[in-house]
Specification:
Layout: H1 14-66, H2 70-86, H3 102-112, H4 116-119, H5 128-134
Amino acid sequence: MLTVGYGDIGAVTPLEKWICISWMMFGVIIYAFGIGTISQVLEKVEQKKNALKAKTDVVEVFCSETKIKPFLKRKVVEALEYNSGRNVFSWIESGLFNEIPIELKYAICTEIHDGVIGRHDFFAGKSPEFTSLFVPLLMPLKVEANDVLYVDN
């Protein structure tokens, strides 16, 4: 986008020169936009990785001070890593989620949770408004195959 050939053919008239300069400026803008977008993506990944590292460092210090068993520490770190990868609601806290219609919020909530929301007994008969307000409050939880979450007496 920044070259106009091998030099054997060049702009001669003022209109041709203006078109070439405009095309070069357009190319610079496109390249700058692409590099800026890639930089933002890499920065976001780095921020997420640094936040996870800070959390695991705190867990490491806590576990060493309280003499927590290594298998328990490993489970805590795995849970943090899992939550870090699954935390899709961080953008909801920015307020963007409040600006979209209820039907769209409901569709997003259902899609994020792989359609489980529509099939779960708790949400049966509940309005989309209720579901749209309740589901963002849910946090991801990694459980093992034999873990018990709730026992009803």
